[in-house]
Amino acid sequence: MSSPKTPPKLPLRFLRWFCREDFIDEVEGNLLEIFEKELDTNPTKAQRQFILNIVRHFRPEYFKIFHSRKKSSSYPPAMIANYIKLAFRNLRKRASYSFINIFGLALGVCAALLILNYMEFETSYDSFHVNADRLYRIKRTFIKDNEPGSPNVFTTYALGPTLAHEIPSIKRYIRTHGGSCVVAYEPGNGSSISFHENNLLMADSTFFEAFTFTPLAGDLSSALDDPNNIVLTESIWHKYFGDEDAIGKTLKLAGGRVDGLYSVAAIIKDVPDNSHFSFDIIVPMHNIFWAVNTSAMMDGNGTTSLLT
Hints:
Blueprint lengths: L8 H10 L2 H21 L1 H14 L20 H17 L1 H28 L12 E3 L5 E2 L2 E2 L6 E2 L2 H8 L5 E14 L7 E11 L3 H4 L4 E4 L10 E5 H8 L8 E5 L5 E9 L12 E4 L9 H6 L1 E7 L1
Parallel strand pairs: 6-11, 8-10
Antiparallel strand pairs: 1-12, 2-3, 4-12, 5-6, 5-9, 5-12, 7-10, 8-11, 9-10
Helix pairs in contact: 2-3, 4-5
């Protein structure tokens, strides 16, 4: 009876059962090659040798169960660590070249980030107002010899009321006028404090109905209703009063149309940098029209904003 010329099936199935998929082709191919070489000289020995070789490969490094979890990782930790070592070696070998490349890349990234930050800031002006999509600022252009000049934001004081009267879609008009003054505070138990303030703003009582600023104290909805009220920013509050409560305290203003005593009605956070308004103090616009006639009101210049 002749010996079989094919490898034993049961050991071969056992090999395919325990051996890893990434090794099975190579291991099985080698064992079959050895089996075929021995088969011509001694078939019985070839059968025994084939089984023995399978038993020799029955080791943990060939087991599927110990390596099934590593299939998901294409880059084992040892390989990654080796790549990092090679990278640092190349950096040390070409220090000057590496410095130029890394420094140039870092400089380019920084420049790009700065440009993006600047663009974001410039395009965010007045976007913090709740009614930003309903606010409009009126501009005026003077025409001389049929040639228009550069537009500017200064308009007559009567423009706001006139537009609101003639255009029903306008809900509010807000007139503002910048200025400066000397502000003095006289505490009851100390020497007076006075400073020249350049960021004074006179505004209509509707100012806080249209523009959104964060209140820290007081009621903004009525802060500018009284001609003798005043609204301070956080910086000015600390400048004159420190951390003490300033609501109801009296400040004396001197200069132009704002001469008089004013009671602190509200305090707001400092005006954001991305605002076209820049002020530290707000007083009612009423003071600009105090004891002036209609012609002066028509000739006066200020900014006019509309809320639709």
